[in-house]
Amino acid sequence: MSTGKSSSGKSAKASKPAKAVPGIHIGIDEKARKDIADGLSRLLADTFSLYLKTHNFHWNVTGPQFNSLHLMFEEQYNELWLAVDAIAERIRALGSPAPGSYTAYAKLSSIPEAKGSLSADEMISQLVEGQEAVVRTARSIFPAVDSAHDEPTADLLTQRMQVHEKTAWMLRSLLG
Ligand SMILES: [Fe+2]
Predict the structure, then answer these.
(1) Residue 51 Cα to ligand 1 middle (Å)
(2) Average pLDDT value for residue range 141-151
(3) Which top CATH class is 26-173?
(4) Which of 10, 30, 108, 176 could cross-link to 45 by cystine, CB 3.0-4.6 Å?
(5) Cβ neighbours of residue 48 under 8 Å, at least 6 residues apart?
(6) For the chain, which residues make up each domain, given as ranges?
(7) What is the C-alpha separation between 106 and 49, in angstroms, rounded?
(8) How far is the CA of 127 from the centre of ligand 1 (A)?
(9) How many CB atoms lie within 10 A of CB 114?
(10) Which residue has the higher pLDDT, 159 or 2?
């Protein structure tokens, strides 16, 4: 690993010119890119929280519906896991750091953690609420996205909203 010093002991920084990193010129100004990335960071935190909650319920669900719920939750957490990556990488493309710690997610997420032992129906209800919370967060980013003509983010948000609204409907249907 480089120590940042040349063999003579002098700082390599002093003798080398700084590398010029090209700026971001995609037709969206810096303030708009930051606003959209902040919204996407909330979406990332919600999506990660819902991922973890769904995986938790995959492990801990009990009752006569065990097999079908265990498998359904697995399908859902796998889909959420892939979405987390797509959202984080869009934040990076807009020039902001992607949050990736439990501390950051606890601060940014609108989805509360599951507490205590829950029945299968309580788990399903919490997942409906979680899926709908992610939709609301995604929808709240649209005004900034629309005014900046940020079509790639609009496309990502539209896809996420479609998945979450459909999943909320499917989960809700299990409750009669
Ligand atoms: Fe599993």
Answers:
(1) 13
(2) 97
(3) mainly alpha
(4) 108
(5) 80, 84, 105, 109
(6) 26-173
(7) 8
(8) 17
(9) 17
(10) 159
**Residue 5 β-bridge partners:** 11
Determine the distance separating the centroid of ligand 1 and the alpha carbon of 58, expressed in angstroms.
Answer: 7
- Give the mean model confidence (pLDDT) for residues 145-160: 98
| pLDDT at residue 47 in the model | 98
CA of 102 to the centre of ligand 1 (A): 22
pLDDT digits (tens, 9 = 90+) for 18-30: 789 999 999 999 9
- In the chain, the amino acid numbered 45 is A
pTM score, whole prediction: 0.89
> DSSP label at 11?
B
Q: Three-class SS string for 76-126?
A: HHHHHHHHHHHHHHHHHHCCCCCCCCHHHHHHHCCCCCCCCCCCHHHHHHH
Q: How far is the CA of 131 from the centre of ligand 1 (A)?
A: 20
For ligand 1, the distance from its centroid to the CA atom of residue 55, given in whole angstroms, is 8
Residue type, 129: E
At residue 15 the predicted structure's pLDDT band, cuts being 50, 70 and 90, is low
CA 79 to centroid of ligand 1, rounded, Å: 14
For residue 27, the CA-to-ligand 1 centroid distance in Å is: 44
The tokens describing 170, both together, are 């499917």
